[in-house]
Every structure is written in structure tokens, then in C-alpha cells.
Amino acid sequence: MSGIYIHIPFCVQKCNYCDFYSVADAEKHLPFFIQSVLNEIRFYSQQLPIFPKKIRTVFFGGGTPSLLSELDISAILNGIQKYFELDVNAEISLEANPGTISIEHLKGFSRAGINRLSIGAQSFVSDELELLGRIHSRDDITTTVKGARSAGFNNIGLDLIFGLPGQTLEDWQVSIHRALELEPDHISTYALTWSNATQTGRDIESGTLPKPEEDVISEMFLWTDEILTEVGYLHYEISNFAKSGFTCQHNESYWNGTPYLGLGPSAHSYLDGKRFWNVSSIDQYMEKLKVGELPRESEEILTPEQKRLESISLGLRHYTGISLSIVKDKMDELYQLETKGLGKIQKDRFILTVKGFLLADELAIRLA
Q1: How far apart (Å, rounded) are the C-alpha atoms in residues 106 and 119?
Q2: CATH code for the domain of 351
Q3: Dist. CA 237–CA 147, nearest whole Å
């Protein structure tokens, strides 16, 4: 089994916090872009004979994939089916931004084969949406979720961001409670990351916006775990919560080392210890495919040490933890972490507690 990710690099406007590759002129590029993706699918089917042909998950990410039409989605999925073997029960996800999608769009996506929606709510607080540069309102989120349900979607996720400049725990609680009123099947809660690459990051570094406080971020994280698990969501990965049977299978492939292909500009792929990625330019991407070249920018073959660190790092983020066999030289350290309430040894696994999740990156380095 394997997965395919398609990066759709179009947005109505760039959000202040986002450093993913995107462009604003979708109408200019879309017809040529769809054909380029189809060419990339065909080239990979010919040039990667060892890549598993059975596709279990497809994920349309971005950017704003909900700017595509039903025909665009159908064309890409038909292309995958033509050159690979798309599992009849494949999870096919699409990221959708409120304010860019109507009930008719949603019905069209369902007809095209999308069976899971990841809705980029980010916040239910108006001031926070403005700070983030989002084009939708909190009411648009409700309209989109209810529209998706009426269009037949029974696997809907909401994405939310915490740790914003000036955000209080009470502000964050408003977003979580409003999200729960909509009864999503999956909730992703991401702590804001910022750098010079984004407007938000530059404003924080210049002092225009207050720097998020670590203790407040930790308080938000621990409270989120408490409230969501209390109402029946499984905290199955640091940033992800799901009702029973609704974990994101595509994201699970990233965490367990399943091979996946990344299509579209800036998309990353992984196969048999090799990571490779595409150029971060839609013009270069389309030009390379037009002349019969894969749009690859570079690649990296992971060393045994890198593979081990990655296995530990990704495993510690997951609720199933890591095998003791890959940290057998660190048992004393594991016992100390267990004593401190940061982890627990269960049979042949080491699993972080929710408090341990707060230190996951640091602990991965220590254990590796």
C-alpha cells in the first residue's frame, strides 16, 4: 500500500502565518497545471517501477484545493486510476477553506470521489481570523460544515491554530467549544510556528505583535487534550484528535514510513529510505513536465542514523509510541522519564504521556 499527495498551490490570498508554496492567479495556470499533474503521474508510473502500485490514500493539500472544480478533481483521480491501482476503499481527502466553497462545489467534490474533508477553520474568534489574514468568518465555518454534511460527507475534520500572538486560554476555549458544537469527526490543533518567512513571524520578531508565551501555549495544549479526550476523541498524534474510526489514514502513512508520492510544485515524496522533492515554482514545474522531465529539485538518501532518529521522532508523536528495540541502549533514560510522568513502558513499547508530548522533539534527540 502507498499514498499520493497532490499540492494545489493556489490561494485567493496569502495568509499572514503561512509559509507553504502558493500563488494567487489560479485561473491563469489551472488548465496547464492539471495537465502537468497528469503528466507527472504518468512519468512516475514509468520511472518508479518499485513504487507500490496499490494506492490506499490520496490527499489534495495546498494552497486551497477547494478552488478546483469537480472536473479537475475527477481528471486527477482518473489519471491515478489509469496508471496506478486506486483501492476501492481508498481514503481521498481534500483541504477546503470556508469562504471558497459552496454547497454545489461540495456536492461536486463528493461526486468526483472525495470522501474526506479537512476544513481550514483555524479560529472561531473574529479578531484572530483577521490577524491570520483569513478571508472567511466564523459563520462561514458553520455554513461549510453543515453544507458538507448535507452534501453527504460523513468524514469531516476541522483544523485549528493555537499559540497566536496575544491569544489567551479563554480565546482558545471559545474556538474549541464552537468546533465541538459542529461535531466534527476529526480535529487538528496546531501550535503556531513562525519565522522570517511569514508576515506574522516578521511582526513578532519586530515587536509589532507580542511573542506567544510558552507557558500559555503549554496550558492550551494540556487543556485541549483534557476536553477532547473527555468527550470521546482519541489523541492519536500530538496535533490530532479523532472519533473512533476517523484517524487520518494518509497522515498515518507519514508517521509509519509508508511510501508516498508528492505531486505538484514543492511536494515531497518518500520511498525506501530516499526523500525527494519538487521545485517550488509553478512555472518551472510545468515547464519541466512539458519537455518530458520530472520536476525534481533535489533528493536525500537517509543514513541509518537519520532513519533511526526519524523513527524515534515520528513514533514519539504517535499514541502507539516506539518499539523498545530501537532504544534498547536507553532503558535507564526511559525509566527516568517514566518516573517523571513523561512516558510509560507498556510491554515492548515506550509511549509518551500528554505532558511528554510537550517535550517530544527534545526527547527524540535525547533518545537517539
Answers
A1: 12
A2: 1.10.10
A3: 28
β-sheet bridge partners, residue 351: 344
Strands (E), 196-312: 234-237, 240-242, 260-263, 268-271, 274-278, 296-301
Within a domain: 244: yes
Beta carbons of 12 and 25 less than 8 angstroms apart:
no
Whether residue 362 has pLDDT greater than 80: yes
Query: Mean pLDDT score of the chain, rounded to an integer?
Result: 94
Task: Pick the closest to residue 56 from 120, 4, 7 (CA basis).
Answer: 4
Q: Which residues contact 36 (CB under 8 A, 6 or more apart)?
A: 285, 286, 289, 290
148-179 tens-digit pLDDT = 999 999 999 999 999 999 999 999 999 999 99
Overall number of domains in the chain: 2
Domain end point (choices 255, 290, 316):
255
Cell of 22: 502558493
CA distance 147 to 103: 5
DSSP 318: B
- What order do you get walking across the sheet with 186-191 strand by strand? 234-237, 240-242, 186-191, 156-162, 116-122, 85-96, 54-62, 2-8, 260-263, 268-271, 274-278, 296-301
